[in-house]
């Protein structure tokens, strides 16, 4: 793993995610962290018109550079070994700026917080995370605002039989797990009784033994995954996005508050 992109908005949540990224980079032996801030705001949620902030002046950009430099220094103060930290800002709206950054900067993963600094950013963070997950095949690590880094030993893949695991997703999951030298396990939650048979193609693609596959019967998808993760000391949840998959459930209305905003562990999205 080489570079990690970390979107920040100077909130406590974003700073926590950036601190998480530093420890994550240490475990994954990443060489660089790119702190990224986009300050463009959409005029309306239904249009693509970009409103430049009133403060988009040389003075504002100088202040922004100072804030980014301060954040960079605070993170560097926590480092013992050398990891290069870069900063990048953009006047575009978040998703457009993110797309541009991913085009310009070769990164291995993206790490971001799950809440924003203002009520508006909290309102749109779910859709931002969905858009971020859907714009790149890079692993996206979403860090809940209360989570502090603990070394990742066990990653739990919340698997849905409604979605087929693509070869590039399997490669990405294997590489991500290998970079952290972690153990991967798979859980499928069903609202009805299941035959419990492990999908051989899935296990073969991920290079896992049948013992790494688990099925849980629960009337609530999210609660079933949360309970299993807690009972088995999972350090991360992993999911792939899909219209009817776990990730769509994770960010659907009240589900957002129940899991994404209050998860005990980070959620990793692999598109």
UniProtKB/TrEMBL annotation:
Record has Endoplasmic reticulum as a keyword: no
Residues of the UspA domain: 1-144
Keywords: Coiled coil
UniProt-listed InterPro entries: Universal_stress_UspA, UspA
Coiled-coil segments on the chain, per record: 61-88
Record's keyword annotation contains Lyase: no
Domain of life (superkingdom): Bacteria
Pfam families cross-referenced by the UniProt entry: Usp (PF00582)
Family recorded in the similarity comment: Belongs to the universal stress protein A family.
Protein name: Universal stress protein
Organism: Chitinophaga chungangae
């Amino acid at each position: 793993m080489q570079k990690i992109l970390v979107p920040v908005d100077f909130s406590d949540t974003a700073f926590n995610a950036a601190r998480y990224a530093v420890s994550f980079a240490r475990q994954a032996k990443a060489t660089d962290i790119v702190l990224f801030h986009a300050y463009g705001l959409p005029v309306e949620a239904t249009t693509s018109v970009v409103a430049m902030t009133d403060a988009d002046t040389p003075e504002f950009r100088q202040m922004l550079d100072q804030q980014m430099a301060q954040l960079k220094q605070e993170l560097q103060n926590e480092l013992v070994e050398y990891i290069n930290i870069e900063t990048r800002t953009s006047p575009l709206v978040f998703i457009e700026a993110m797309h541009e950054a991913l085009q310009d900067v070769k990164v291995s993963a993206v790490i971001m917080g799950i809440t924003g600094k203002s009520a508006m950013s909290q309102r749109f963070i779910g859709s931002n995370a969905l858009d971020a997950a859907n714009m790149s095949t890079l692993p996206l690590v979403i860090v809940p605002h209360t989570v502090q880094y603990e070394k990742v030993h066990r990653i739990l893949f919340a698997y849905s039989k409604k979605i087929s695991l693509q070869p590039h997703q399997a490669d990405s999951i294997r590489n991500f797990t290998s970079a952290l030298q972690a153990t991967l396990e798979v859980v499928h939650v069903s609202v009805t009784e299941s035959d419990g048979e492990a999908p051989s193609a899935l296990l073969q693609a991920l290079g896992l033994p049948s013992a790494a596959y688990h099925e849980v019967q629960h009337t609530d998808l999210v609660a079933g995954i949360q309970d299993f993760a807690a009972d088995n000391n999972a350090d991360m949840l992993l999911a792939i996005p899909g219209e009817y998959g776990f990730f769509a459930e994770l960010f659907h209305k009240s589900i957002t508050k129940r899991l994404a905003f209050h998860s005990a562990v980070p959620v990793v999205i692999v598109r």
